[in-house]
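Inputs:
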Amino acid sequence: MTGVVLGQAGAARFSWNLLGDLGQMLSYEFMRNAFLAGAVVSVVAGVVGYFVILRRTAFAAHALSHVGFAGAAGAVVLSVNPVWGLLTFCLGGAAVMGALGQRLRDRDTVIGIVLAFMLGLGVLFISLYNGYSTEAYSILFGEILGISTGDVVLTAVIGAVAVVAVGAMYRPLLFASVDEEVAVARRVPVRGISVAFLLTLGLAVAVAVQVVGVLLIFSLLVTPAAVADRLTTRPASAIAVSVVVALACTWLGLAIGYYFSYPVSFFITSLAFFAYVVTRLSTGFARRRRTVVAVARPA
Amino acid sequence: MTGLLHLDQPVVCAHDLAAGYGTDVVWSGATFDIAAGAFVAVLGPNGAGKSTLLRQVLGLIRPLSGRIEVLGEAPRRGNPAIGYVPQARTLDPDVAFRGVDLVRLGLDGHRFGFAAPWRSQRSERDAVDRAVEAVGATGYAQRRLGAMSGGERQRLLLAQALVGEPRLLLLDEPLANLDVRNQATMAELIGSLARGLHLTVLLVAHDLNPLRNVIDVVCYVAGGNVAFGPPDEVVTPEVLSKLYGAPVEVLVDSRGRRFVVGIEEETAHPHPHGELVPDAWRLP
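Outputs:
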């Protein structure tokens, strides 16, 4: 996030020689980095996103991104890589949320209160940094074109930890998410799983903020999983589809952004949104038709 | 451990047991033996501590005083010989999670990691299919759990409890939120499964009547007390009045159905916090 001017490759011309276009795109290091970081973030967001919906923790994800904003802004003030600020604050925020306990209704209020405070703190940090608003802009709305090679490596490491964590607790996480009472009786460490998942969510948020920013985080962390939920019925397939959708949105968004001087995050969020609308309309239609058939056939 | 259990030994035995949370006593003085294969209806008003009894048997809370043994040992969490069916919860209707996925959790949901995709899942899948078939859910078990009716979800929760081949089955209000016809079907299903699989069953309900053909024993929890015995002997004006500490009448209709009437609101809710369990008092 070094404040690269958005759409700086805007001079590039699109031809129908797609391979040639791709070759030209990838001849730039910042585009290669963007594709790689985008891929890592899509995999992490796609995997974690399924559980965000299953556990109804979208609000916690939202709040974590705001906590991350304060962290990233604080890091900018201290002239530290913003990714470290994001990571520290997201993990800290996740740990605090986990410590608040299981009762979600109470937690929502506290999360909302902390969220507002963190956003305020972020504003202060940004103003401390000589009022330089490009930094705030790239934290809030993402700056995938400014990701350095070092950040790609860091993102890949964080992403790998998050995916391995989900894999390691896959079955008990499903159990605790769907059927908490029985899971407790079966000796699943539900409380520990909940904290571990929040920490994993913190990692996912920290890497995703780099691509779509704090305010557009749901486009990668919720929308692809929501699309997948409508297209499949099995958890494992849903996770796979969710990853594919996130990856398609991110890469296509990047490719489109290469030719137009508009923010890449706009293209990514728009693609995700239209993917959801199209899925919803088509699956809704299919379901309604099934119902009509079922009614038309006498028992 | 459970292999040492003799057939004639009771599955659950309680002696002067008191249960509650922290310093709050929900009920006390419970002494009973539940024989192997018995079908017990746990009855009583809301907030009297019916679920507390299940939590006690599951080993989720420690006795405040007295003694309880389950399958010949102290109650412990994660005992595979116990199947537990809590009240059905709702799930987001769109979420990709099928009925069979829920049942499968009963088999290996407590294990870390994921089921290795390179290993054959045949025996697990067969076990899931058998459990689904036993509860008559084969027709819809492949559908999204969130899109199912309360009765369908309840059957799959039952299948989840059965897939681990338990010897003791605990059911928390499996008939709640079902219409009268489905209540009868569900009661019959549980009864025939219990007979066929030689299960001992503790079933929490607030109405005795849909269960009257399947149960052997009633465990009535009210007014901080617990009464245990055959329905005809427990659900009587004398016993219930003593439990509640207030006059209670029992009407018996021509078909043998029993209706408890004349309970004042205050005596029906002796425990000020209802069945809410504060987090801090749960066992880790």
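Remarks. Chain A has a mean pLDDT of 87. Chain A touches chain B at residues 50, 53-54, 56, 101-103, 167-172, 174-175, 178-179, 181-188, 191, 226, 228-230, 232-238 (CB under 8 Å).
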